[in-house]
Amino acid sequence: MRTLLVDDEHFVRKGLLLTVPWKQYGFEIIGEAENGLKALDLLQHTAIDVLFTDLTMPKMNGFELMKKVKEDYPGIQIVVLTCHQEFDYAIEALQIGAIDYLVKTQIEEGKVEAALERISKRIQADAKQRAEVQSNADATAGWDLAIVPRTSGVDLSMMGFETATQTKPFHDDSWIVSHHGYDNWQALHVFWERNGLYASWMPVVIPMAKEQGYPGKREWHDFLEYDVFYAYRSDHPLPFIYKKAEDAGKHAVVQSDVERLRSTFHTLKWLFDDHSYMEWIGMVEAKAPAAGEVRRMVADSLEALQNVQGISDELRVLINSLNSITWHGLCALLAHLRKQLMNSEYPPETCLSIYRALLLIHTEVAEDLNQENVAQRVALSRSYFSQCFRPLVGMSFHELLTHMRIKKAAALLAGSSLYIYEIAEQTGFNDEKYFSRVFKQHKGMLPKDYRESARLLQQ
């Protein structure tokens, strides 16, 4: 991949050129520039595939350069060079179209290989998807359209389809659209983008061969769980091309690897340590477990961390929508979460202990927990734990424990047929009457009334 380096610091550029094993990961450095203006001059007469750019530069900064490149050279992939102190800028750059970022301290510490491998794979996956769209979907006939919901409660009527005559249910809540009326994939993409449909529905082009028919349930499930999950990007979406996997066992992942990924994530070290964060991301992309497994391995930690004081409502919405999030969306969510949690006035070690306490409470909510034994398990004295807990969480230990128990009880009431006394036991209440009283204090109604109300809403 023909690569251009842009950084205003001469020694940084030379360090990148001399110390990073570019060719080992498919990059060929064919130019360098000290600012955005110089980079644009080079692009006028030099073919480039990948642009590595700093963000804070004189004359034309990285954001301005990104905007011009996206407008004039949309085929170029952009990777951001950033420092730990400028991590906020990297997040912003990802939101406006950078495919990934490289932390400069990783280069200085000789830990750049995993990041380069991740970046290379992302660029190649993105290029492969775009090439498949271009080559397989240009025909004016011979392909059918499937649409996959990206959020719950989306309405087919917003696309102008007549539900009864043009759509039929398909696997995994997807739909097949007959007589879709799109002459080619470009027309489909323009319509989707113009009407803001990518936020709710993902279009999938299914090249039709008479002898093959539609994908089976297992084939379609694997396509969504692997191909779509890892390749879909909400910042520049395109229609997907369905392609049957030639190797039925290609997605097999050893369960011990999944458990290792889960336990690594639950340490929460990745919140404050860039290397741990990038290492975990690289491990997931190398092993590529199914979407459901990835979502499950992060769910407990993220649901617990949303109780931290200062987490934005926007981030809480994303955390509560994990069942529809893609890999790219999850990486963006984690980056935002790290950014918000790094702003604490308490030392990272203290924050990490409190956050681990939140995870412990979340996963053991039915157990006999108290402030003393939880503080001991996260290696803090009881007095210091109490001193830090409320400022970081926004409520006392007892209030948070009760909040988590009531939240889980509400979910069980709405989504299960367990008896109320069983739900009380599973949420840490040994007495059903006490449970009902506390539940009413928090939800304004008794558990049985809450269950009935939830069932009526679901009808």
Describe the protein.
The protein has 459 residues and is α/β, with parallel strands linked by helices. Among the domains are: 2-125, Response regulator (Rossmann fold), CATH 3.40.50; 140-241. Helices cover 53% and strands 10% of the residues. Helix 4 packs antiparallel against helix 14 (327-341), helix 10 (255-266) runs antiparallel to helix 11 and helix 12 (291-305) packs across helix 15 (348-363). The protein starts with a strand and ends with a helix. InterPro entries: CheY-like_superfamily (IPR011006), Homeodomain-like_sf (IPR009057), HTH_AraC (IPR018060), HTH_AraC-typ_CS (IPR018062), Sig_transdc_resp-reg_receiver (IPR001789), Tscrpt_reg_AraC-type_HTH (IPR020449).
Rg to the nearest angstrom?
25 Å
SSE-based structural type:
alpha/beta
Structural shape: globular
Q: How many angstroms does the end-to-end distance come to?
A: 54 Å
How many helices?
Answer: 21
CATH architecture of the domain at 2-125: 3-Layer(aba) Sandwich
**CATH fold assignment of the domain at 2-125:** Rossmann fold
Low-confidence stretches: 137-141
Give the proportion of residues in helices: 40-55%
Describe the largest sheet: 5 strands, parallel
How is the quaternary structure best described?
Answer: single chain
Number of E strands? 10
CATH class of the domain at 2-125: Alpha Beta
DSSP strand content: 5-15%
- Rounded mean pLDDT is 84
Sheet with most strands: strand arrangement: 2-1-3-4-5
CATH homologous superfamily name of the domain at 2-125? Answer: Response regulator
Protein name: Response regulator
InterPro entries: CheY-like_superfamily, Homeodomain-like_sf, HTH_AraC, HTH_AraC-typ_CS, Sig_transdc_resp-reg_receiver, Tscrpt_reg_AraC-type_HTH
GO molecular function: DNA-binding transcription factor activity; sequence-specific DNA binding
Keywords: DNA-binding, Phosphoprotein, Transcription, Transcription regulation
